Amino acid sequence: MKPMNDTEISEFLLLGFAEDPELQPLIFGLFLSMYLVTLLGNLLIIMATISDSHLHTPMYFFLSNLSFVDICFTSTTIPKMLVNIQTQSKAITYAGCITQIHFFVLLIELDILLLTVMAYDRYVAICCPLHYMVIMKPHLCGLLILVSWVVSVLYALLQSLMVLRLSFCMNLEIPHYFCELNQVVQLACSDTFLNEVVIYVAAILLGGGPLTGILYSYSKIVSSIRAISSAQGRYKAFSTCASHISVVSLFYCTSLGVYLSSAVTQNSRSTSTASVMYTVVTPMLNPFIYSLRNQDLKSALRRLFERERLNVN
Asked: Which residues have C-beta within 8 Å of that of residue 207, sequence separation ≥ 6?
């Protein structure tokens, strides 16, 4: 099959989840609902964190950044899928596909790094409580966020440039609902060895590295909690990081499950369906996990609603 130059490629085709036209309205309604819930939930966390002085702490500063990233993360993929369903089209332009890859890689890496930074914050809070405010100064918090953004942007730029060097054949069908990096690379007619090396090395360094940091932080946290003599003290210490543990577990278990299953099965449609868990469901559930398990955040949201009700009256 004859390769095509990048300039000759006009569009890719996103096959989505199902060919049956009768299922399209159901998929549209389901994903639109999840997207709106994700936007609303994460916006409420950001608004509560900004408006309530009690939440002007490093923990909630990182949480509001995570909520912002989750909004951008879902906005990278879901709106295009909804537009395609509504217009009964599967097309995405070549430039649009590369852009989607860039921002998806950027935001998922940023998600991973923010979860790692939040684990470090919880480690300092529980293992070094007397020095917490000295260590977690606003300057350090801002620097951690800046480094996370810089690393993520550079990594996304690298992956985008690696895809741009590829030539593609006539088969431009992507068995996914967005331009997933691995799926696009597999469509290339040119040699993809270097792309695959970069993907796997980056997965080990930028995926496995942060996971190792998170596990190390929580191993120290567990040791510190076990050393607390009173049961009430242990519960209080554990409750400060319970929400973060839940979010980290949900994100890594679903994402690892998708990639491990994709290594076992060659069914790309099944992989794309499973990927919904960490690309859509996890960002949607994060606000609920934090708000349900966190009394400070629930109180801030309650005060926010009361202020809005008074303003309306």
From this structure: 112
